[in-house]
């Protein structure tokens, strides 16, 4: 299985019902995205990375791995960035001038010793949430989480969310993060099967439950934002096998540096014909003049 296996499938673009639910709840669960073969392929790749870090003594104290830059760290995961069954949700919501600015692969085995309390509820974006003054804050980015483990029951390191909280700038928390403190009102543990994907607004308040089960939680996360927002990920060392759209996701486009009239593109989308995802959507007739991120 290669990184070129998937391309955007326009017929799977976000439906009106999905858009309504996403706007209301801040997340969607897409069931059965990955086939058993895909689950085995991506699990094997993540297991290899985990074993390498274990051998080098680079795991967390609890045996966990939180590895940034998913594709640079595990090239086999490149196929997930533009998976045909869920990538259309990304461009349906934030358009064609996007890239993967932040990604990570997570492996969390059973916690053998009870962990002390720590309040981990947060919105993605870091200092965006302090430095942008609007209420609610702008969406700015969305995320796909590919689950490779059966988390159909709670307490397995499940993603926890507060549905609808993506339009709330602040939630009640403890004076110190190391204090015992209840979960926010309305919080749930998202229950998914291996092969399911969760698509969520970066603003939704979320955390991870502690995994005291016998299951090892394995998930790959890809965060997408506009190309004019700085990328956080490291770039892959080799990209010959990436499709043009995957190269765009990894910020590997050449583009024109300088135009005598317009100046440089600077990832602002000034020259759409040089942005692979724009070209692909235009050829498929899926640009939408009524929706700003998809305007031709």
UniProtKB/TrEMBL annotation:
Protein name per UniProt: Ectoine hydroxylase-related dioxygenase (Phytanoyl-CoA dioxygenase family)
Keywords: Dioxygenase, Oxidoreductase
Species annotation: Longispora fulva
InterPro entries: Phytyl_CoA_dOase-like
Keyword Oxidoreductase: yes
GO MF entries: 2-oxoglutarate-dependent dioxygenase activity; iron ion binding
Pfam families membership: PhyH
Keyword Oxidoreductase part of the UniProt annotation: yes
UniProt-listed SUPFAM superfamilies: Clavaminate synthase-like
Domain of life according to the entry: Bacteria
């Amino acid at each position: 299985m290669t990184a070129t296996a998937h391309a955007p499938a326009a017929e799977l673009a976000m439906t009106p019902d999905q858009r309504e639910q996403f706007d209301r709840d801040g997340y969607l669960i897409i069931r059965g995205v990955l086939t058993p073969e895909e689950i085995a392929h991506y699990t094997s790749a993540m297991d290899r990375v985990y074993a390498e870090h274990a051998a080098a003594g680079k795991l967390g104290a609890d045996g966990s791995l939180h590895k940034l830059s998913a594709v640079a760290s595990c090239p086999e995961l490149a196929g997930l960035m533009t998976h045909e069954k869920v990538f259309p949700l990304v461009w349906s919501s934030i358009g064609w001038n996007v890239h993967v600015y932040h990604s990570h692969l997570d492996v969390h085995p059973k916690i053998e010793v009870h962990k002390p309390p720590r309040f981990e509820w947060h919105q993605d974006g870091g200092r965006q949430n302090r430095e942008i003054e609007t209420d609610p804050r702008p969406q700015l980015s969305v995320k796909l989480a590919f689950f490779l483990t059966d988390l159909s029951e709670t307490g397995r390191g499940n993603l926890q969310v507060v549905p609808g909280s993506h339009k709330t700038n602040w939630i009640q928390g403890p004076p110190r993060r190391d204090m015992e403190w209840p979960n926010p009102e309305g919080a749930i543990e998202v229950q998914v099967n291996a092969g399911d994907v969760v698509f969520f607004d970066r603003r939704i308040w979320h955390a991870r439950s502690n995994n005291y089960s016998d299951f090892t939680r394995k998930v790959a996360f890809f965060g997408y934002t506009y190309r004019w927002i700085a990328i956080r990920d490291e770039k892959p060392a080799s990209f010959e096998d990436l499709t043009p759209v995957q190269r765009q996701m990894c910020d590997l486009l050449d583009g024109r540096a300088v135009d005598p009239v317009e100046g440089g593109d600077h990832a602002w989308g000034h020259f759409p014909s040089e942005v692979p995802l724009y070209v692909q959507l235009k050829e498929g007739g899926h640009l939408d003049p009524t929706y700003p991120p998809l305007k031709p």
